[in-house]
Design brief:
single chain; three-stranded antiparallel beta sheet; 8 helices; about 20% strand; Peptide chain release factor 1; Pep_chain_release_fac_I; PCRF; alpha+beta; coiled coil; Prokaryotic/Mito_RF
């Protein structure tokens, strides 16, 4: 099916929905579903209408320019308008094509962020803490809520692992390409010889799952309670408020001890477990789909090295799209992270458009 045929199919469905809803023909059970479909199609239909109008105007102008009897002044104006339209039409075509790409159902969801220290000992843990703070600042710049859920500190300001719940509009859509191994190259504060060390931290961004997305059966869970402890082993409180949940069918284990209430820790642990199970289910579907896909910007593989932060040279390189920014301070402050993320989204859209044919 050509793109123009796809456009016509969308417009036909849009008109059908508009007429059905306007005439009150949808029964109460279908009304909400059809209204949502109509609302989703409206910006696409408007973009297609804008494109068709621009193409039609360009055709009329081309005829005027080709007419030997046309007034010279009118022809000059037509040539100027035609030139502007021919520059605008490819942008309109891309806008429509992007709007027709299959939507990731998780894009509008909130996210669970997990950052873990990898190879590199104390230096890896310090870098993990810096990455966690980078995402906290980035969330703040976007007006999102960033709630640290569970942080395991090393005692020198580093994090062995840290989990946060990020809520706001389109959180997962912007953060989903951050999953993978982030590598850092710099001279650690503890390095007397001034040698550059390479360390790593792993980032996982999971879409927050609702109960309707993932049902967890209580009989599939083993719940252990224990006493919370802070860095260095000191006791945080004297009650068994920390919770460890093991999902028996998959072996996934989630611990939560930040809250003083066992009930709150259990609720948070279940939220993380649900997100991990949902992510696992999505990964299985993506793996099946990937067999048909020619390229992927991010496979979501947690072992894939996606980015290098080189402090001596002040640069950050994303290896998936070969983009290097010489503004490491602004990236770590969350300010320049959008440049990376926008480029990753654009690359993903381009790859999917190529597959659309």
């Amino acid at each position: 099916m050509s793109l123009d045929e796809k456009f016509d199919k969308v417009m036909a469905r849009y008109d059908e929905l508009r007429d059905t809803l306007a005439a009150g023909l949808a029964d109460s059970g279908d009304f909400a579903r059809l209204s949502k479909e109509y609302a989703d199609l409206t910006p696409i239909a408007e973009a297609i209408a804008e494109l068709k109008k621009a193409r039609s105007e360009a055709g009329d102008l081309a005829e005027m320019i080709a007419d030997p009897g046309a007034d010279a002044e009118m022809k000059a104006m037509a040539e100027e308008e035609f030139h502007d339209l021919t520059k605008r039409i490819p942008d309109l075509e891309r806008k429509v094509q992007v709007s027709l790409l299959p939507k990731d159902e998780a894009d509008e969801k909130n996210a669970i962020l997990e950052v873990r220290a990898g190879t590199g000992g104390d230096e890896a843990a310090l870098f993990a803490a810096e990455l966690f703070e980078m995402y906290r600042r980035y969330a703040g710049l976007h007006g999102w809520r960033f709630e640290a859920m569970d942080v395991s500190e090393t005692g020198i300001g580093g994090y062995k692992e840290a989990t946060a719940n990020i809520t706001g509009r389109g959180v997962f859509a912007r953060l989903k390409f951050e999953s993978g191994v982030h590598r850092v190259q710099r001279v650690p504060a503890t390095e007397a010889q001034g040698r550059i060390h390479t360390s790593a931290a792993t980032v996982a961004v999971l879409p927050e799952a609702e109960e309707v997305d993932i049902h967890i059966d209580e009989k599939d869970l083993r719940i252990d309670v224990f006493r919370s402890s802070g860095p260095g082993g000191q006791s945080v409180n004297t009650t068994d408020s920390a919770v460890r949940i093991t999902h028996l069918p998959t072996g996934l284990v989630v611990s939560q001890q930040d809250e003083k209430s066992q009930h709150k820790n259990k609720a948070k642990a279940l939220k993380v477990l649900r997100a991990r199970l949902y992510d696992r289910e999505r990964a299985e579907k993506d793996a099946a789909r990937a067999a048909d896909r020619k390229s992927q910007v991010g496979s979501g593989d947690r072992s894939e090295r996606i980015r290098t932060y080189n402090f001596p040279q002040g640069r950050v390189t994303d290896h998936r799209i070969n983009l290097t920014l010489y503004k490491i301070d602004k990236v770590m402050a969350g300010e320049a992270l959008d440049e990376m993320i926008d480029a990753l989204i654009a690359e993903d859209e381009a790859a999917r458009l190529a597959e659309l044919g």
